[in-house]
Amino acid sequence: MWLHTLAWIVCSIYSTIPAFWLLIHPRAEYWRSRPHSPYKILLPIWFGMWALTAALTAPWRRALVYENHWLWIPAALLFCAGLILYKLSHAHFTLTQLGGLPELLPGQSQQLITSGIRARLRHPVYLAHLCELLAWSLATGLTVCWALTAWAIVTGIVMIRMEDEELENRFGEEYRSYKCQVPALIPKLKL
Fold first, then answer.
1. What tens digit of pLDDT does each residue of 73-99 get?
2. pTM here?
3. Cα 137 to chain center, whole Å?
4. Helix (H, G, I), strand (E, B) or coil at 107
5. C-alpha to C-alpha distance for 85 and 102, rounded to whole angstroms
6. In whole angstroms, how far apart are CA 50 and each of 56, 72, 96, 188?
């Protein structure tokens, strides 16, 4: 089924996002000190991660944990939630910031954004990624999608901790205070 192939490809790419950022956050100062854009090095590495992930998981790309077409309904809700989070993440946040340029390039404007969706959770883009991965996994029931989602969660937890540390180094007490008040991924519900 072509949707299973698409799900496997999408999950192969999405699951590498935390690993990509693990290359950046622990060494942000190093990347900023380079005379040329670090993306000339980092993007080919990331594309290599895609290829390696796809090659390693290809033998299991058709293996199913289950098959239930009704699960496309909650999956559609997760897809929509992810798209809404992406849209909300862009408000008050430039494409430059979404692309990580302030972390990587010297002389970039560095401003902590705590308004909009970021007043409710610190890392809305990562939650959007997770919603998309979970949607594909739930909808297709593919073993490989569930495994890649689990991998993204594990590496994502480490990456978020490293990113928080890097942001604390960059913004100091302002970020520490923000971090104490606003959860990383799951917004607090006010009843």
1. 999 999 999 999 999 998 877 777 777
2. 0.90
3. 16
4. coil
5. 21
6. 10, 25, 23, 34
